[in-house]
Give the backbone structure.
Amino acid sequence: MKKLWLWCKENILFISSILLLMFIPLYPKFPLLDIKNTWVYVRIEDFLVLGALFIWVVLAIKRRISLKTPITIPVFLFWLFVAIATLH
């Protein structure tokens, strides 16, 4: 059991990615919460994506993962432009 726990702890990003890949396409798109006076709904998968992002940020802060890949800057620029477009 201890080996399984250590493996899960070492591969938490892999496990969270697999869970997202299984859950998002298979779970029906039922809204969990609705935001008043809008057509926006919050689903369970939004919380799962938020959890995976939180795990990733914590591991990045602890320096257990590396951001030195060839596509890091283009991905961050993409998300920056998406955020700007969303706010606009």
Summary: Helices lie at 2-10, 12-26, 44-61, 72-87. Residues 44-61 form the longest helix (18 residues).
